[in-house]
Amino acid sequence: MILQKRMSSSSSSSCTLLIGLLCVVLLGGSLSHGQLSPTFYDSTCPNASNIVRGIIAEALKTDARIGGSLIRLHFHDCFVNGCDGSLLLNNSATIQSEKEAPPNNNSARGFGVVDNIKTALETACPATVSCADILAIAAEESVSLAGGPSWNVSLGRRDSTTANRTAAGLFLPGPREALPSLKAKFLAVGLNSTDLVALSGAHTFGRAQCSSFIDRLYNFSGSGNPDPTLNTTYLSTLQGICPQNGNTTVVTNLDLTTPDVFDNKYFSNLQVQEGLLQSDQELFSTTGDETVAIVNNFTANQTAFFASFVVSMIKMGNISPLTGTAGEIRLNCGKVNNSTGSDGLLYSSM
Hints:
single chain; 14 helices; two-stranded parallel ribbon
């Protein structure tokens, strides 16, 4: 299913909901799509998407969760200073890597696959395809390979020469956040409630560590009791996977129904209180909020979910890109060009 690209412009005026610092640090520029185009590499690297798809397909043979991991990298990149590949930069004398911010540290993964994609693209089309665009293409291909929609990815982003660990720590939406906070963080980057629900639907595949939801199982919000919005049968299952005082790096499926398929089962899970993360269940269990109706619609109509998801992914991919002569095309995604230090490969943080 290929859904045609729909461009959406956004206004930074939404930042008035949050303090001005958030707007300056998080956005780092306008929310327009600049010079992005689905045909950007048609003459300079026409096989770019096929190369990315092939490497992800190969990775899936030994790592069923890699698709969810790769789309998360694109998400976490775009929410911090825009879609500029800054998440991929390693520590250096001048850079504090975003990979070590709390939302990413020992959690963000898939960097080895990004390395493999970059190496293949440098062989086919040297110094042409940016690391930021690799993340955008990889997100689309991951969804498509899992049975979800395909779309025309807008391309032409360039790579940043800086990172912002502070912004990553403050402004990335987290698994324990209540709905008002989630909405505010999305609105600050020009994304509305429909975008929030649609993009959360990416949790229809992938895994999460016990550390991201264990408080829901035993001591929700300091109450000494489990989260009352958690299905009791599902609660028992999760307590078996994540025992109290156990290994919090153990992972479980974000979608217990069809864990490796991109479909709308994530939303029907929410209706029976089987959302894994608090930030998931909040979308349905916040009585009276507009997100409840959106969840119900996506549960009943997978086509509507896919269409909204594509629109929201394109909007997110348009957050503050570097285009034209801004930034650079990194030769190694982990380091700025002409910098000293490591080889720039990302695998050590995989």
